[in-house]
Design brief:
The structure holds two protein chains of two kinds. By secondary structure, chain A is mainly alpha-helical. Chain A is built from seven helices and no strands. Chain B contains twelve helices and two strands. In chain B, a hairpin with a 4-residue loop joins strand 1 and strand 2. Chain B has a domain of 188 residues. Classes of the chains: A mainly alpha, B mainly alpha.
Amino acid sequence: MKDKILTFIIIGIIAIMGNWVGYNVSPIDALPGMMIIVAVTILGFFFAKIIPIKLPIVVWVSMLALLITTPIFPGNASIIKVTEQVNFMALATPILAYAGLSFGKDLKEFKKLGWRIVVISLVVYTGTFLLSTLVAEIGFRLTGKFH
Amino acid sequence: MQENSLRNWKIHLFVLILVCVTEFIGVKTFNIGIGAIALFPMLYALIIGAVISLPSLKILKMKEMNVAANILGISFMLFVAKLGMLMGPSLPKIFDAGISLGLQELGHFAGTILLGLPIALLLGMKREAVGATFSIDREPNLAIIAEKYGSDSPEGRGALGVYVCGTLFGALYLSVLASFLAQTGWFHPISLAMGAGVGSGSMMAAMSGALAVIFPESAKDIAVFAGAANLITTILGTYICVFFSLPFTNYLYNKFEPILGRKSKKDQMKNIGA
């Protein structure tokens, strides 16, 4: 857990730098928001550990983040205000950088695959995205929401 | 996961440099005739990172790439936390879209099967097709297949194949597909955002990034609804896969394999023999 906390802090610092370069938010302005994001993430891991309901950690993290920003939570307005300083795209860039740097590890495995499974994997990803988008769109058109 | 498997300064340093350089370059759009291609920092970071990791360049050791993968496995939690904080204030709007949000999950779970299985059968795949198409084959899905059929079964190999391809190309492919679909003008940005909640953190990040670049005025809504859909996909994921996806894929396989499936060599031998 100590290593995880350290890792979140490092990623948080990297994201603050990206937020500065890409979105012109000074690190001083972004720091309080990032501290809350890191704290909520760590708390999510902690909750997953101590609460005996078996749910993926990402659910705990999401629920906690959602809860502290809803109007029922005291101080939600200031939490929203400081976390808004951290652009969500700036947080995604380091994640995909780590994803990129792990690319080479699966190449050997990939070279063993036949072309069919490669085609099917693209079809599978297309299917899940396309069909859900289509159903959502039909839903919106039928209910007249957002159109 | 070993505790020290997250420790590697070289990886963090590479990520810091990648982030600063790619954020500095910023969003670039290129018109390629049939539409514009939007390129943005996280996409450059993914691609340049992948090039750095190529084994032939010998910049990173296998151990270091494994550390990067381990960090990836927890890093998207920060992104998810950020999305959760955008969702809190937007709860009324999320509930307002409740019907569409609920129904589109059917698309997430059935989409892989309905589109994937027939094509897999037409390509001549057998039981591999079940493992490959019953879900998007991320870690939790692999566990389900391994438990039921074993990792070394045809089903297990199919699931693992899609897993490997998804790990390597999923985020990149889906973000390109998201830009492309966004530019057709057929879909509302929020519909596309919900579609992006595929249940994988890095893929969802790349897709919502692509959508936010194309619809900058809806960027916040995109983050909110991609996050909400992804959360529901994650919560329901395991249950739906065990109780619906896998039985449904098997049902369709038994029904359509005799029609769409190519005859196996054994069958052909029998025909010749008869």
